[in-house]
Amino acid sequence: MRKILPLLSLSALAACTVGPDYDGPKTAGAVAAPAGFARAGDLSVAAPQVADWWTTLNDPVLDALVARALAENPSVDVAEARLKQARAALRLDRANGLPNGNVQGTYVRAELPEGGLTGGEGESGGGGTAVDFYNVGFDASWEIDLFGGQRRRVEAARAGVAAAEAQVADAQVSLTAEVASAYVNLRDRQRRLELGRQTAETRRRMLALTEQRFRAGTASQLDVERLRGLVVESDAAIVPINAERDAYLNALAVLVGEAPGTLDGELAAIRPVPLPPAEVQVGDPTALLERRPDVRAAERLLAQRSAQIGVAKAATLPRISFLGLIGIGGTDPGDLFDLDSLAGLAVPRLTWNALDFGRGGARVGQAEGARDEAAAQYRGAVLTALRDAEDALSRFAARRSAVANAARATATADRAATLMQQRYRAGVATLIDTLDAERQRTAAEQGLVEATAAMTADYVALQKALGLGWRG
Questions:
Q1: Highest-scoring range by mean pLDDT, 158-167, 192-201, 330-339, 428-437
Q2: pLDDT confidence of 7, banded at 50, 70, 90?
C-alpha cells in the first residue's frame, strides 16, 4: 500500500492543469452582435449560400474562372501550406507528451598495454591485450505532465490548426471576390469600349455632314471645329478604357495561376455584365460572426494565446522525469543472447529552477499580454466585420437605385431617338439631329452599363463582407 500511495499522489498531481481555462471570447469582453443588420432594407434575412455564391450571377465563364483560381492560385496554396505546418506541429506536441526511447548497439575493440587490465600476453602477441566488447541496449525517458504544461501545448496547437483552417477559408473568400470583381470590370470595360466606338463613329458621321453643310454655306466653321473636337474627345476616351480592359485581363490570368495575356483569346468575346439575383439573402449579424473566416481565425488565436499562459506557468513549477536503461552484452558476441548479462537501471529525476530571479514570472506576463492583445484583435475583427457588412449593404442599396434611374434615362433616350428617326423619315428633322439623338441614346446606354457593373461589383463586395465563398 505504501508503494501505491506515491503513484496515486503523482496521478493526482498530473490531473492538475495550470493556467486559465478558455471559455470562449465572451471572457474577453467581446462585442455583442445586434439582432439584425441596420442597413439590410428589404433584403432577405434568410441564410445566404456560403459556398459557390458566384453561381447566383448565372455566368458559366465566371464559374469556370473561379474554379481554376481555387485550384491554381498561389495565395490559397500558401494558406494550405501553413495549415499543413500547423497540423504537423499539433502531431509533434502530442508526441512530445509520450515516452521517448532509443535502441543502440555498440562494438568496442581496445588494445591495452602489457600489464593493463588483465596482465599477461593477449592475443595480439605484442605483449599487450586486445579486448572486444559487444552491447545492445535500450533507453527511455518520460516527463510526467504534472501541471498540465504539455496538455496546454496540445490545446494551443489544436487552436492553431483551427486558426490556420480559418485562414485557408479567408483566402478562398478573398480570392473568389477578386476573381468576380475583375470579371465584372472586364465585361464592363468591353461593353463601354464597344459603345465608345459607336459614339466616335456617330460623331464622325455628324462631322462629315457638317463639313458638307459648311461647303454649301449652311454651317459655320465654328460648327465644324466643335464637332472635330468631339470626335477627338471620343477617340481619347477610348484609350484609357482599352488599357483598363487589358489590366483586368492580366489580373484574371494571374488570379487563375497563368501568365498575363493567356486569357486574352478566351475572354475576347463580349458578354453582358452579370446581374445579381432578384432576391439577395444576407442572414443576420450573429451568423455573420460565426461564418466569417477572419473572425473565426481571430477567435482561435485568442484561444491559442490563452492556452500558452498555462504553458508558461507550468514551466515555473517542479518537473519530474524518469530515465530507464536496459542493456545486454559482454566480450563475446554470444553474450548478446545471454540473459544472465542483462542489466537495467531506472532513475527518477526532480528538477526545479528555484533561483530564476523572476524569469518565469516575466514569461507568464508576456503570455498574458499576448492573450490580451489577441482579445483586442478579436474585438477589432468583430467590429470590422459588422462595419464591412453594413457598409456593403448601404452601397448595394444605393447602386440598385442608381441602376433604376439609369434604366429610366436609357428608356427616355431610346424613345427620343425613335421619335427623331420618325421625324427624319417624315422630312421634319435633319440627319444631324437624328445622329445626335442616337449619340445621346448610346451615352445613356453607356451610363446604364456603368451603373449595372457598379451594382454587381457592390454585390460581390457584399458577398465578401458576409464571409461567403469558402468550402469546409
A1: 158-167
A2: very low
49-58, 64-73, 85-94, 97-106, range with the lowest pLDDT: 97-106
Distances (CA, A) of 206 to 200, 225, 229, 270: 10, 12, 12, 27
Q: By C-alpha distance, which of 163, 393, 186 is closest to 285? A: 393
306-to-66, 85, 381 alpha-carbon distances in Å:
38, 21, 18
Residue 400 CA to residue 241 CA, distance in Å, equals: 24
pLDDT surpassing 90 at residue 456: yes
Mean pLDDT, residues 280-306: 92
Residue 122 CB: number of other CB atoms within 10 A?
18
Contact 453, 33 (CB under 8 A): no
Question: In this structure, what C-alpha cell is assigned to residue 21?
Answer: 481555462
What's the whole-model pTM score?
0.83
- Provide the CB-side half-sphere exposure for 106 (13 A, CA): 16
3-state helix, strand, coil in the chain (%, to 5): 65, 10, 25
Residue in this structure with the C-alpha cell 500558452, named with its chain if needed: 308
Q: Per-residue confidence at 233, pLDDT binned at 50, 70, 90?
A: confident
Residues 8 and 390: their CA atoms lie apart, in Å, by 58
151: its cell numbers = 496538455
3-state secondary structure of 110: strand
Query: b or e along 359-388 (b: 16 or more beta carbons within 10 Å of the residue's beta carbon)?
Result: ebeebbeebbebbeebbebbbebbeebbeb
* Nearest-angstrom CA–CA distance, 295 and 299: 6
151, HSE (Cβ side, Cα atoms, 13 Å): 14
What pLDDT shows up at residue 237?
A: 86
Alpha-carbon distance 314 to 324, whole Å?
24
- Beta bridge partners of residue 142, listed in sequence order: 322
